[in-house]
Design brief:
This protein is an alpha/beta fold and 176 residues long. A 5-stranded mixed β-barrel has the order 2-3-4-5-7. It is globular, with a radius of gyration of 15 Å. The protein has one domain: fumarase (Alpha-Beta Barrel). Helix 1 links the parallel strand 1 and strand 2. Helix 2 crosses helix 3 and helix 3 runs parallel beside helix 4.
Length: 176
C-alpha cells in the first residue's frame, strides 16, 4: 500500500478535502466513542443549548462500545458498530462541526448529502476485528454518561488505526 496516508487528528476541511472513497488511511490522535444512546443525549444537549461532553468542531466519533480492558491494556475489544443506527442523529452533529465518523456499513442517502454539505467524511473499520483494532488504541478514558456502561462516551487515542474512506465530500461511496 504505497498510497497509504497517515492522518493526524483532529480533522479539518483541508484534510477532509484530500480524502477520497476507497483510500486506506491510518488515523492518529484523539477520537470519541458514541453509540445510539450517547448520540441521543448529545443531540438533546444541542437542542437545549447545554454544555456538550466534548468539543464537536473537528472531532471524529467512533461508533463502538468497547469491552472492559484486560490487564495491562487500556481497552478491550473495540470493533465498529453498524453505523446506520446513528443516521437520525448525525446531521445535527455534522452541523456542529464533527468532521469524521467511523463505523461499519453503508449510510443513508441523506447522510451522503450531509457529508458533502458539512465537509465531513465517513470511515469504515473492519467488523469482527475488534480485538485487533484495540491494539491501535493507546489510551481510553470515560468522559461522559458513565451510566451507559460500554456505551458511555470514551476519549480514545489512536496510533495508526486502520480505516477505509467509505464516503467522502465528493459523493464517493465504496458501497455503491
Amino acid at each position: 500500500m504505497a498510497d497509504l496516508k497517515i492522518i493526524k487528528l483532529p480533522l479539518n476541511e483541508k484534510i477532509v478535502a484530500e480524502l477520497h472513497a476507497g483510500e486506506h488511511v491510518l488515523l492518529c490522535g484523539v477520537v470519541y466513542t458514541a453509540r445510539d444512546a450517547a448520540h441521543k443525549r448529545i443531540v438533546e444537549s444541542i437542542q437545549k443549548d447545554e454544555k456538550l461532553p466534548f468539543e464537536l468542531e473537528g472531532s471524529t466519533i467512533y461508533y463502538t462500545g468497547p469491552a472492559p480492558a484486560p490487564p495491562g491494556r487500556p481497552i478491550g475489544s473495540a470493533g465498529p458498530t453498524t453505523s446506520y443506527r446513528m443516521d437520525s442523529y448525525t446531521e445535527p452533529l455534522l452541523k456542529m462541526g464533527v468532521r469524521g465518523m467511523i463505523g461499519k456499513g453503508e449510510r443513508n442517502a441523506d447522510i451522503a448529502l450531509a457529508l458533502q454539505k458539512y465537509k465531513a467524511v465517513y470511515f469504515a473499520a473492519v467488523g469482527g476485528a475488534g480485538a485487533l483494532l484495540s491494539e491501535r488504541i493507546i489510551s481510553c478514558e470515560v468522559i461522559a454518561y458513565p451510566d451507559l456502561g460500554a456505551e458511555a462516551i470514551h476519549k480514545l487515542e489512536f496510533e495508526n488505526f486502520p480505516v477505509i474512506v467509505a464516503q467522502d465530500i465528493f459523493g464517493g461511496n465504496v458501497y455503491s
